[in-house]
Specification:
The structure is a homodecamer of 150-residue chains. With 150 residues, chain A is an alpha+beta fold. Chain A folds into 2 domains: 66 residues, 434 Repressor (Amino-terminal Domain), CATH 1.10.260.40; 64 residues, Cyanate lyase, C-terminal domain (Cyanate Lyase, Chain: A, domain 2, 2-Layer Sandwich). Chain A has 6 helices and 2 strands. In chain A, strand 1 and strand 2 form a beta hairpin. In chain A, helix 4 packs antiparallel against helix 5. The longest helix of chain A is centred in the middle third of the chain and has 24 residues. At the D-E interface, strand 1 of D face strand 1 of E. Strand 2 of chain C pairs antiparallel with strand 2 of chain D, so a sheet runs across the interface. Chains A, B, C, D, E, F, G, H, I, J: One of its GO terms (molecular function) is cyanate hydratase activity. Chains A, B, C, D, E, F, G, H, I, J: Catalyzes the reaction of cyanate with bicarbonate to produce ammonia and carbon dioxide. Chains A, B, C, D, E, F, G, H, I, J: Its EC number is 4.2.1.104.
Amino acid sequence: MSHNIIDKIDAGQILNETRLAKGLTWRELAEQIDRPVVWTVAALLGKHPVPKVNAVRVGEILSLDDEVVSALQRQPYRIADAGLATDPTVYRFHEAIDVYGQALKELIHEEFGDGIMSAINFSVDFAKQEAPQGDRVVVTLNGKFLPYQW
Amino acid sequence: MSHNIIDKIDAGQILNETRLAKGLTWRELAEQIDRPVVWTVAALLGKHPVPKVNAVRVGEILSLDDEVVSALQRQPYRIADAGLATDPTVYRFHEAIDVYGQALKELIHEEFGDGIMSAINFSVDFAKQEAPQGDRVVVTLNGKFLPYQW
Amino acid sequence: MSHNIIDKIDAGQILNETRLAKGLTWRELAEQIDRPVVWTVAALLGKHPVPKVNAVRVGEILSLDDEVVSALQRQPYRIADAGLATDPTVYRFHEAIDVYGQALKELIHEEFGDGIMSAINFSVDFAKQEAPQGDRVVVTLNGKFLPYQW
Amino acid sequence: MSHNIIDKIDAGQILNETRLAKGLTWRELAEQIDRPVVWTVAALLGKHPVPKVNAVRVGEILSLDDEVVSALQRQPYRIADAGLATDPTVYRFHEAIDVYGQALKELIHEEFGDGIMSAINFSVDFAKQEAPQGDRVVVTLNGKFLPYQW
Amino acid sequence: MSHNIIDKIDAGQILNETRLAKGLTWRELAEQIDRPVVWTVAALLGKHPVPKVNAVRVGEILSLDDEVVSALQRQPYRIADAGLATDPTVYRFHEAIDVYGQALKELIHEEFGDGIMSAINFSVDFAKQEAPQGDRVVVTLNGKFLPYQW
Amino acid sequence: MSHNIIDKIDAGQILNETRLAKGLTWRELAEQIDRPVVWTVAALLGKHPVPKVNAVRVGEILSLDDEVVSALQRQPYRIADAGLATDPTVYRFHEAIDVYGQALKELIHEEFGDGIMSAINFSVDFAKQEAPQGDRVVVTLNGKFLPYQW
Amino acid sequence: MSHNIIDKIDAGQILNETRLAKGLTWRELAEQIDRPVVWTVAALLGKHPVPKVNAVRVGEILSLDDEVVSALQRQPYRIADAGLATDPTVYRFHEAIDVYGQALKELIHEEFGDGIMSAINFSVDFAKQEAPQGDRVVVTLNGKFLPYQW
Amino acid sequence: MSHNIIDKIDAGQILNETRLAKGLTWRELAEQIDRPVVWTVAALLGKHPVPKVNAVRVGEILSLDDEVVSALQRQPYRIADAGLATDPTVYRFHEAIDVYGQALKELIHEEFGDGIMSAINFSVDFAKQEAPQGDRVVVTLNGKFLPYQW
Amino acid sequence: MSHNIIDKIDAGQILNETRLAKGLTWRELAEQIDRPVVWTVAALLGKHPVPKVNAVRVGEILSLDDEVVSALQRQPYRIADAGLATDPTVYRFHEAIDVYGQALKELIHEEFGDGIMSAINFSVDFAKQEAPQGDRVVVTLNGKFLPYQW
Amino acid sequence: MSHNIIDKIDAGQILNETRLAKGLTWRELAEQIDRPVVWTVAALLGKHPVPKVNAVRVGEILSLDDEVVSALQRQPYRIADAGLATDPTVYRFHEAIDVYGQALKELIHEEFGDGIMSAINFSVDFAKQEAPQGDRVVVTLNGKFLPYQW
């Protein structure tokens, strides 16, 4: 029985510190393991179980200890963090849903029928769009439509 | 002094019932007033002040009473609706932010610097993506990057 | 423009009073419209849009006004009702999830992989099981497994 | 006086890590102690006092320390974990109750009378149902009806 | 279809006003319908469905309208009232549970085993105990022990 | 200045573990110090200051360290534990107050006048009542009536 | 059965408007019914049942309708008003308790023993103290000490 | 740089334990430093910065370590403690404000004008009033009236 | 007794609609009654009692009914509106305090001593600052320092 | 990989203690690094990433360890601290927004149009204003107006 169990969240923080110390960007790390960048950041910070091949590769790139590599592979608890939701950078996303969520619901029902956009069969893309009046953050949410189906 | 003040939220509900009774989709209505579809739904349901020219045009299309047309133009309170946030169709968007919000924060800081994606200088696009394993909802959030700037 | 808009929740209450006055059980009503019983109760009380054919048939059986029949067909807001959750009959279900939810999560991940039981592609069955020491309520939740799939 | 008191929750985590390290599934473990699988997972993670014979047997199978075996047998506090309730895999169960709880209450009262489904004289079954369009999670809640009885 | 549906809570308030106007105590009313006094007050204020024979008798005693007598018989929602819980007379009961609840849990487990005192197969008795230093309120909670029983 | 200050809650947990290890029931312990059993459990778990004579006696019976004996005598903070209130065994008591609290308030006012049942000049009795259909938990709350008295 | 039941809170508001319209101060009104001023304001605004003699006298002074006079005499619900607690004039009192409550608890225990200051056998006095640097509000809380007494 | 930083709250607890061990009452301590007793208890438990002369004197009287004496002098955070507010001895003060706060607001406005009683330019006095029917706690709040003044 | 009591909040809404209908800005209205602009808006929307001379003048300018003019003069409840606090325009102010509040506290203590900035002896100024990269909102909070003074 | 990771909040506390021990005011420190004073306090306490040149300079001035200097430069989580918001010195700012926030919203919309004052492109100034009746705290919030712009 292992005496060095590390929590996934702690593993993610250790990984992140190491990444910063090595001067590696998230995007470079994502490219090196050939995975989408938002998935990579979320997974390495503890929101997804990292497949063994990716976890081992990240461990090699960053010279992580085995228990960190092991923790990355474990199944997560994806607990909503009420504190984090007040960070201004994160809050703007929730505010956008508070303002436009009803409109999105109307359009999903109008164009797809009664149901939801899955947050499980789902991906997020992140891009930087250059613009003369200031660069723009472009986040694309892409989820399978799931009809209410008895 | 007007004795027929209608609340913006009530005005939006009357408008929506009328729209459904006439068999007009949100997308058709948006095209007729030549405005983006998510903006149109949100604004007509009370989340934005509707410019006079658009409000009057919508009033003509749907044969709305003057006080409804007037209410559409008023400045809104954009109150977050805690009940609505539990509707499954809306909840999935908040859940996605709960799962991926930290990753989006990391990437904004990595690629843009310390700051936020504006939810004010901001647009949302909604699209239906056909796919063999089931159609997909594609929602694109596009906001100007605002650096913390003293 | 209709001047007799009835809220779906109010429509459900009118329907329910009428059903009780006529001495018709939910199960009989479900059979007459040939739909599953839990779906029927939930939908007629406002949690689902009722297909036109079912709504019209229910309207005939219960002699409901047109605006009630119309309200049944509208798209619902499925808002979580914090008050209802404290009713002892409803609370026991939440308590069961509080006690066994972690175990269900462990087993879903063990036997299906990383993902969820859908609450959308989902049905609920309700049965009475006779037993010598007292009858038992048997509720079966049946949802499609959705793997986290990027 | 023992100086090695281990919390039941901590004992469950140690047990789980050891189980994973040994490559033993929950279902295999449940079979080896001849107990239902949902009960086994819940109890070993700290939600029930484990009878001595089962605790000792689990201790042998997993080579657990005595204080872990002892902790498994203690009476638990079954505190509702508000954080866990936001994990998407667990949340779907609460959402299902939010959507269908009122219907279940109606049917319990209609078919059994005024009362509740016990969450104490109660069992949960978990099964995997294979289906051409994707496997399904089947969770059966089975509780004794308790009439309000003065 | 009845057009005079009265809410159970409203029915209870009408009943109570009428009772006070007639100068009838709760205890007298309970005796006249031959039911326990705490049950009678709770049920007539809307916490229980009142059996038809009792509801009709109360209606006669207090000359209540038919829709009130009818409302008394309906199945209740027993929603916890967070406001009421702050009334000093009610708060003291919750405070007593906050102070002594853990001790009651210890003793239930010690003397009965793992389980609960049912709040459904349950009665409450209320008595006035005369004492030289001031009369005392004596409330007896009597519930069937329900063992956790899979 | 003492360097071995133990928190009252921690002292109670040490005491309880020791008690269990010695196979002594709460009731036996209460008899040995000649105090009511609910008071004894509550006080030894930290809800009351234990008089020196009782604390010393308990220390002797259980061979507790001096700082534990000392902690038992300190004045407590009787903080309401929101987590504990969700434990099913404790929750049923709060639920009973939620269902019957208004009735108790009505009867207190009817039979005593405007005022409360004291939770300070107050005792709780716990008993096991044998019954053919299952043993019953009987909890008696006995508090001095305190009239609102300016 | 009375058809003109007025809520105590509403009765208090009607009374207050009438009082203001007549230019009568609370202190004058208290003197005219020979009751303490804080009691008078609280009771007439619905926090206490007003004895018949006082209610009738107030009704005469202010020419109140009978149903208002009747409402004043009813037993109140003394619900804590979370909104009112944020009014700056009321908030300062709660803030004072937040800052000094622990000190008051220490002193009550030191000088009286384990127990509380009753809020039931309790009076509040309000005075204006003139001072060169600005007048001062002096509020005196006077409650019977109640020892924890089993 | 000091390596022995002690938190003000921790400093207060150490001070209090030492005080109790030495058998010194709060009132005696307050007299020895010639400060009001409620201020003394609050300040020494961490709610106020203690002037150096008082902190040093208390340190001498109780033989406190330098870092405790230093901590007493630091500026506090006066965070409202939601747990403490549920302690029965503290709760009664908040309950009194919940019941009489509106009346105090009315009287402040009537006798002083629109404004508040300051909780900053403010003192609290604590006294024991002997009475034949039981001693009374007398707490006097004395705060400067501050008019809303633009 | 007046039968036309209007709530201050409702009075403010009527006033505001009338003002908009007349095309009068808040700033023009403030100038016409010679009061600061932020005070004027807040007071006319119900946050302050409006002095009679100002209320009457506003009534003349806007041709308001007497009961509106009367309501403006009444003492307000200044209840914090949790919904309004989520409106994006208002939220940014609370966010600024969440980010900079601790720094403001440090500086108040450093430069003034232990105490607060009064929110009662307090004014707010609002200005538009033109700037090449976009106009700026300048809000100046000006409150008397109040030292903790026993 | 660094084994001496310090949290930004902890780094801020160490820095502050060192600053106090050295008798350096925040304003002096701000001047020495030539940055605005409110920014300096907020940033050094962990609310902003401190540019390397400023962090190194502060490290020299205060002789801070390298890991503290490093922590100062990291990207922060700007979590709203609900406890801090109850500190009286901080609370007054939130109260001011609760009282005047609606007025500020009205004026922003009237003079700028539909939009917000940015809390990101934003600065805060702090000044002491001497006045004969007591010095005043003057806090100036200065944020770029951001129009809702699709």
